């Protein structure tokens, strides 16, 4: 059996919209009662290819699901995001379907549509799955190209793939490859992905679509996440953003995103500077509409009022709130929850996570 494990991730960290991603995994400290139903913050696939099995499944792949949101995940190999992506990788190599009798058991520990990179993890898991069952031996750098054909902003997928605190950018490609990159998603991943077997090979992604750099992370900085019990669809959260920004707002974010990686690498962390460097004018102000209470959380929680807190932001497209902190996690979490609950009557869970340094990995069991 193969196990493919992919961490959750928090994108943006305030000013680094579509740039920063922090891969996250659970931390096994003494959990407060409120945090006792904490999730693993990990997506795991258990994959077997059984020659003795007699029944045949569509596209040779049988899917079972467990964990968070399992009931909502598609069991159809041409509908489930993970297996659709795997089929895309297989078809780029001339294989229409999975090897006979492939079984994929999905154990999802990442809450769906909460801003913790569930879709990025699913895309990375799908590329790993296609690579493993096809035996293609793709490098992680090449796998990033495949991921970026599906999820067009690099922050979550780069963090989930490489692990740790990562900055990434999309490269300017030559006109021929730009045309490839700009093709509609529905052509890369037709839905359903099965379609007619035309015998044609799907075109592989251009090489080197994106680049990344892994920054140092000071180990005493932990990631406290407060996860409200409602979903924000990333496509919708991108839809509320303006197409153009003022020079003032662009400079505001540039100034902060340029300094943030250095500030998060220093020990002891400088809370006053980090708090200011995590402010943003490109996405959070517009997403307040989708996350009631967000503006008040960002305005009211400061290192001066909440010892241990370094900085606070929306995690990815939300609605999760990410607080970077060194201690005093419960008090910070309860302060965030109180504000969110004043804004609307919702339940929240909270959890302390830490960087998942290794990123996505494959284990061979037995
Ligand atoms: N384990 C999974 N298996 C199959 N599909 C998944 C899985 N995880 C996520 N998805 C798909 O991704 C969708 C969620 O993607 P969306 O971009 O809205 O949220 P997110 O990735 O959790 O948030 P963010 O991008 O802000 O971090 C789900 O509705 C589902 O279609
Ligand atoms: N950078 C992305 C992350 C969410 O997937 C966004 O904020 O829209």
UniProtKB/TrEMBL annotation:
Q: Which residues form the GHMP kinase N-terminal domain?
A: 80-164
Q: Where is the GHMP kinase C-terminal domain?
A: 270-335
EC number of this enzyme: 2.7.1.39
Query: What catalytic activity does the UniProt entry give for this protein?
Result: L-homoserine + ATP = O-phospho-L-homoserine + ADP + H(+)
Gene3D superfamilies recorded: 3.30.230.10, GHMP kinase, C-terminal domain (3.30.70.890)
This protein's pathway reads: Amino-acid biosynthesis; L-threonine biosynthesis; L-threonine from L-aspartate: step 4/5
Keyword presence, tRNA processing: no
Q: Which keywords annotate this record? A: Amino-acid biosynthesis, ATP-binding, Kinase, Lipid biosynthesis, Lipid metabolism, Nucleotide-binding, Steroid biosynthesis, Steroid metabolism, Sterol biosynthesis, Sterol metabolism, Threonine biosynthesis, Transferase
- Homology family: Belongs to the GHMP kinase family. Homoserine kinase subfamily.
Name this polypeptide is given: Homoserine kinase
Species in which this protein is naturally found: Stereocaulon virgatum
């Amino acid at each position: 059996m193969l196990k493919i494990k992919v961490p959750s991730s928090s994108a943006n960290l305030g000013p680094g919209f579509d740039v920063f991603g922090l891969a996250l995994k659970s931390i096994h400290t003494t959990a407060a009662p409120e945090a006792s139903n904490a999730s693993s913050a990990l997506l795991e696939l258990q994959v077997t290819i059984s020659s003795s099995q007699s029944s045949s499944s569509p596209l040779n792949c049988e899917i079972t699901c467990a964990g968070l949101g399992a009931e909502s995940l598609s069991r159809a190999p041409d509908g489930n995001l993970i297996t659709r992506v795997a089929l895309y990788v297989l078809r780029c190599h001339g294989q229409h379907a999975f090897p006979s009798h492939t079984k994929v058991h999905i154990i999802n520990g990442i809450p769906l549509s909460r801003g913790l990179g569930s879709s990025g993890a699913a895309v990375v898991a799908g590329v790993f799955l296609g690579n493993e069952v096809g035996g293609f031996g793709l490098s992680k750098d090449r796998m990033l190209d495949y991921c970026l054909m599906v999820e067009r902003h690099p922050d979550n997928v780069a963090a989930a793939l490489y692990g740790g605190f990562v900055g990434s950018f999309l490269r300017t490609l030559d006109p021929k490859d730009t045309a490839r990159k700009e093709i509609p998603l529905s052509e890369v991943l037709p839905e359903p992905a099965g379609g007619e077997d035309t015998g044609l090979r799907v075109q592989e992604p251009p090489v080197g679509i994106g680049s990344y750099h892994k920054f140092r992370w000071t180990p005493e900085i932990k990631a406290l996440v407060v996860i409200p019990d409602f979903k924000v669809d990333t496509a919708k959260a991108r839809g509320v953003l303006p197409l153009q920004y003022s020079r003032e707002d662009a400079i505001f974010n540039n100034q902060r995103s340029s300094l943030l990686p250095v500030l998060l690498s220093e020990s002891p962390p400088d809370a006053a500077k980090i708090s200011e460097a995590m402010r943003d004018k490109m996405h959070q102000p517009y997403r307040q509409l989708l996350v009631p209470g967000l503006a008040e959380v960002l305005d009211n929680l400061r290192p001066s009022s909440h010892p241990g807190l370094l900085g606070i932001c929306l995690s990815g497209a939300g609605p999760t709130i990410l607080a970077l902190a060194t201690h005093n996690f419960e008090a910070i979490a309860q302060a965030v929850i109180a504000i969110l609950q004043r804004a609307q009557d919702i339940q929240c869970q909270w959890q302390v996570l830490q960087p998942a340094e290794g990123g996505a990995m494959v284990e061979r069991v037995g």
